[in-house]
Amino acid sequence: KDTLVAAAEAFDLQGYFAKKVQAVEKALDASIQCTTPETKKIVESMRYSLLAGGKRVRPVMTIAACEMFGGSEATAMPTAVAIEMIHTMSLIHDDLPAMDDDDLRRGSPTNHVVFGDDVAILAGDALLSTSFEHCADGSTKAGVEPKVIVECIRRLGEAVGAVGLAGGQVMDLECEAKQGVTLDELTWIHTHKTAKLLEVSVATGALLGGANPRDVKQCETFANDIGIAFQVADDILDVTATSEALGKTAGKDLDADKTTYPKLMGLDGARAEAERLYQEAIDSVVPYGEAAIPLIAIAKYIVERKS
Ligand code: GRG
Q1: What phi and psi, each to the nearest 5 degrees, are found at residue 105?
Q2: Whose CA is nearest to atom 29 of ligand 1?
Q3: CATH 1.10.600.10 fits 2-304, yes or no
Q4: What percentage of residues in the chain have a pLDDT greater than 90?
Q5: What is the ipTM of this complex?
Q6: Count of alpha carbons within 13 Å of 95, Cβ hemisphere only?
Q7: Whose CA is nearest to atom 7 of ligand 1?
């Protein structure tokens, strides 16, 4: 394990990401094109958010997992693109006035600010359904076995539904309005709102790379841990950034309304939890040896990021 972690530390993650993201961007651009004048508006709205320069962590993880089991980038790409479409639609809907009511996303006006709430809702719906179409169509053209394609689509569906993004968001809304949110509830929210899509990214990548069910499970554990660790790290950054900005000692934000990991576990407790999740995640992919280096390096980046 130590040797692998050292190799992941020395790994040129920036170079790896730059190369993979370039391929993902090209595939995203090709995935939705306006072919008739009647669809100009909705396609413009879909492309506006899909091509707005996210980090592309999820599609890169799908490709990395596929390659870890000996599969190719081309095999993973349609599913990787489908997952970025789902992620994008979740952000469009999350920014709507009925949800977080945000005017800015990645430094640009949000979809509904540019196209109106009505078109933004429909662009999100269209991205969601196009994701399934794209996964089916692109994977068939890439020569993926039909039963693997069906399993990928089934997993995508599950990750969006009641035990996925949508369910996680509803539970989050319910908890916003109540006091005394427990650690189990907080973890349920993040497992479904955030970790599920990372889990499906890595699990479908593994399946497309030819992994057996036991290996797919290992990948799920890896991604779920990283997803929660991402959220714990986010909460920690919120506290430390806030206290730095205010020139006060860490912990300033602990009694704000929102329930966070530092609020429930203390700042040191939350740091220890992020580290525990990171170690457990790495342990899940250590058995794959050198092939796991890109995933380990991505995990490290997610947990240790400073902003
Ligand atoms: C799924 C039907 C359906 C509706 C959407 C709004 C909603 C339900 C769910 C909320 C999902 C959400 C916004 C989760 C937070 C996920 C998260 C960690 C986003 C930030 O991801 P990054 O950092 O973003 O990968 P970039 O900008 O890099 O893509």
Answers
A1: -145, 130
A2: 54
A3: yes
A4: 84
A5: 0.91
A6: 26
A7: 90
